[in-house]
Amino acid sequence: MTAVADRGRGPTAVAAPQWRISTDRRSAARVALAEGADHLHLDFGGAHRGPMLSDPRELREAEAIAKDIRVPVLAVNHVNDIGLAEEPGRANPAALGLLERALECARRLGARVLHVPGFRRSLPATEGLRAGTAHALRDLCERAARADLTLAYESPLGPADSLALARSVDHPALRLVLDTGNLLDAGADPLRFADLVGAAGLLLPDLHVKDPAHTTDGATPVPGAAFDALPGLLRRSGARSVLVENDYTHSPSRLRTDVARCRTAIGLSHTKDER
Length: 275
Known about the structure:
Blueprint: E1 13-17, H1 25-34, E2 39-43, H2 56-68, E3 73-75, H3 79-82, E4 85-86, E5 90-91, H4 93-109, E6 113-117, H5 127-146, E7 150-154, H6 159-169, E8 174-176, H7 180-185, H8 190-199, E9 206-209, H9 230-237, E10 241-244, H10 252-269
Parallel strand pairs: 1-2, 1-10, 2-3, 3-6, 6-7, 7-8, 9-10
Antiparallel strand pairs: 4-5
C-alpha cells in the first residue's frame, strides 16, 4: 500500500486498537485494514506488549505503518505497569521519562493525541496518588502543548471525580476519555459521563466502546451489548471517532463485527430523535 487508508463513512471514523490485536504492529495494521477499520491506535509498548516504540527500528516501522493507515493516537499502556504517581502526591519520574519519549514518537508519527491510562499501578486510588497524578498530568500537558498534541487521560473514576482531577490539573491540553466498558465495570453511567464531562468542555471527542467484564448482577454480559447505547453517546458527545476495544487477539472476525456495529450506530446517531 502506498496511500493512507482513511475510509470513514461521513464525519465519524472507526478505529482499531493495535494492543488488542497483536504486539506486532505491522500484523495488527494488516488485520485492522482487512477488517474494515479507518484508523489504528498504536501502543508505545513495553512489558508484555511488545518492543518500545522509542527503539529506532520500531519507530521507522511505525512511521511506515502510518503511511498505510492513519494513526491519530499513541497510547502508553505501559504506564499502568510502572505507576504514574507516587505517595505522597508526587509524579513518578520513571513514568514521566517514559511519556516524554512517547511524546516524541507521537510527534514523529503525526498523531494528534497521546493517551495516558490510569489503571492498575497508575490507579488514582488515594488522595495522595490523585495529587501525584495531577502533578504528572500537568507536567505532561505542558510538554504536549509544546508539541501541539492533546493529552487524553483515562481512568475508572466517575464523572465527578474525573472532573475534580482535571480541574486540579487546569491545563487546556487535557481531555478525558469515555470508555464504556471501564465505566460500567466501575459502576458509572457512560451517558452521564458524556453529559457532565462534555458540558465542562473536557471530553475527548474519541469514544472507546467495549463490553464490560460483568453485568451489574455479576453475570457475563451479552457480546455487543455495549454498542446498544452508542447512538445516544455519539449524539450527546459530538464524537468524531470511535475506538472498538474488545479483545481481538484470537478473533479478527469479532473486530469486523464490532466495526460493523459502530457503522450502524453512527448511522442511527444521525437521526434527529433518540428513540
